């Protein structure tokens, strides 16, 4: 994603809005609309973003990590408590490949069941291995209205809808393990904003945060699907996240950044 691609989108958006609603839209207004779409406060902030930190500089830009005990509390497969893992970043940063890497590692574990049941909501860009039984919920549909959630894992790719946000929080409170991708630079605050738009749920999110049931993981293309996720340090990082193997917890720092929940 570059400022030039955003400008091209703004030009198309301007023409579409003017043609559909018969209203005058300036080029600067279209730029501001595109910036809002990408979750930036304004066009200047969007431009500054693409000229500052790059994905390759993730290690130095995001240094905070969750403690070992906090990760265990959130992701331990032996507990019945729900967990919310938020994969975050901007367009093109690798949110979907990072989520897929997390799921793949779960399915590769020796103690994983022969068939893992997954409920997938949102974009269908994320494919799954043969040993996963997947139920898809259309992007425009309510998750909970599509039937009881009995799957072992819920994946929401590209969380943007306030109603879906409250459904995710409710499911995690009920004991569901969920992986969510979200376009944001401050993922917890973005989810809180969606809940406020829905008018309910911000307090429930705070309860999950207080219980240590929420973690955020920065997305990165560096170890994306196109490279097959064969890097041993990347695999070690994922194992450290999901299975919490002590031998790998330190090498995990180099590849996956666990950011402490924001208050």
From TrEMBL:
InterPro entries: Glyoxalase_8, P-loop_NTPase. It comes from the Bacteria. Residues 2-62 form the Glyoxalase-related protein domain. It holds the Pfam family Glyoxalase_8. This is Glyoxalase-related protein domain-containing protein.
